[in-house]
Task: structure prediction
Amino acid sequence: MGVSQEKILVDIGSGSDPGPGYLGLDSRKTVNPDIVARLPDLPFKAESIGGFRARHVFEHFFSDDVIEMLKQGSRCLKTGGEFVIIVPHFSGPIAYHFDHKSFWS
Result:
């Protein structure tokens, strides 16, 4: 499925599997994303993105970097755009994986 020019959608930390209709953004070149970028910096112009999705990404960052990603996302989103964040709940066993740096409720 191609990405619409009217509404660009970006899957942050997509690995090799961005969702249908999303451009994949990842810091790892080896997973062959559409966009290689080092988080928390988002390499987009202001008000240029229709939506972001971050699935199981934010828990891998300390809170200061999460705040910076949210600021960058707000800058990049078009009016009415969405930023969907999916993280493990702190009460579940997966929340305490060795490389998780923040916990969510």
User: Anything to note?
Assistant: The longest helix spans residues 63-76. Strands lie at 9-12, 23-26, 35-36, 49-55, 77-86.
